[in-house]
Amino acid sequence: MAKHQTPLLDELEKGPWPSFVTALKQQAETKPECWDLLGQLELSYKDRITHWKHGGIVGVFGYGGGVVGRYSDRPDLFPGVEHFHTMRVNQPSGMYYSTQHLRAMMDLWEKYGSGVTNMHGSTGDMILLGCRTESLELMFHDMTHQLNQDLGGSGSNLRTPSCCLGESRCEWACYDTQEVCHTLTQKYQDELHRPAFPYKFKFKFSGCPNDCVAAIARCDFAVIGTWKDDIRIDQDAVKKYIACDPAYPADGGAHKGRDWGKFDIQKEVINLCPTHCMKMDGDKLVIDNSECNRCMHCINVMPRALRPGLEKGATISIGAKAPILEGAQFATLVVPFVKVSKDDDYETLTEYIEKIWDWWMEVGKNRERVGETMQRVGLPTFLKVMEIEPLPQHVKEPRSNPYIFWREEEVPGGWERDIVEFRKRHAA
């Protein structure tokens, strides 16, 4: 395949940063289709429209998801990307790979595909970019039989569950994110590979409120670690932070090499508390835990002095999405605290999940995420479906509607019954 002139893309090679253009040119030395990939992208920059054709369902036998079809609308100019399908590969929990496994995966991808990868996609999968239709089954067969490696999710199905490193590396983790992620991935194989939902559905599991996988912003069912009791305080360590002891650097030494000046607990911790629940009482740090919203800022700044409480679990928030047109929305808090335990095979979580699915598959519109369905029907209706009593944590802001409407079964009698009868008469 001929090399294409790419003056616009060449501009992206200038400057001090690594460039994907340079990497693709290097890959094109052994995989000539990458020249056509660069050529088509150059044409897209010039025409200011994409030249990936819409439509065309492609996949592997027995799976409705896992492969994203990509076809060029200019195969006459760029035959190497006439078919350039994406394969989504289900990553291990926490993205722990052995070098042996990675090398074996890359050997297969060099054999059957373009060799271009995205490590990792925003959902979490290992993304393999560029495979012809006739090579998909061969790649899938060798990947599953030789490496025991499965495809992830794509389309209107459960997308590949994703989690943070959890208890394997992080001292703040409030539950075992990797175990939950692995267990539910195995449990919901059918939902993962055979699209049956109105639209995509994502799980993400963060071990603590730092939310390192951005669950609250990007997924339909966010399980974010938290604690129910008081933040643990080591007052001696607090004093050492205030005294700027070299063994107690603020932020855990994350800014080592730069002089940020003397540590000021009032300025850098107490004044930045979003709920103003902290103060110094003499040389003691005092926290009003009833006002704490678990933002983690104080713990991150003074990790040797403050730790999460011992009564650990998770918060469940539902309905995040980040569409381009309507704008992003965070997930809505639905369950403030739930125990996350392997003892019951995570039955509490799966009950919530399946209750959502049963309802959403019945009332959700085509290409409508759970969060959009919740917005359409209203949070009170959704809480009723979930059989959850409304809590103060569910209230985003005081309501502006001055009218209160009661269901008849909620009215005990007396003047309240008269109101109901009055409304019935006037409704007619």
From TrEMBL:
The keyword Iron-sulfur applies. Keywords: 4Fe-4S, Iron, Iron-sulfur, Metal-binding. Residues 283-311 form the 4Fe-4S ferredoxin-type domain. GO terms for cellular component: sulfite reductase complex (NADPH). Gene3D superfamilies: 3.30.70.20, 3.30.70.2500, 6.10.140.1420, Sulfite Reductase Hemoprotein, domain 1. GO terms for biological process: sulfate assimilation. This is Dissimilatory-type sulfite reductase subunit alpha. One of its GO terms (molecular function) is heme binding. InterPro entries: 4Fe4S_Fe-S-bd (IPR017896), DsrA (IPR011806), Nit/Sulf_reduc_fer-like_dom_sf (IPR036136), NO2/SO3_Rdtase_4Fe4S_dom (IPR006067), NO2/SO3_Rdtase_4Fe4S_prot (IPR045169), NO2/SO3_Rdtase_4Fe4S_sf (IPR045854).
